[in-house]
Amino acid sequence: MGKVPVRLKEVVYTLSPNHLNVMSGLWKDIPGKLSEKFQSSWQNALFLITPGVAIYWYVEDFKEKEKQAHRY
Question: Which UniProt keywords apply (predicted)?
Answer without folding.
Answer: Electron transport, Membrane, Mitochondrion, Mitochondrion inner membrane, Respiratory chain, Transmembrane, Transmembrane helix, Transport
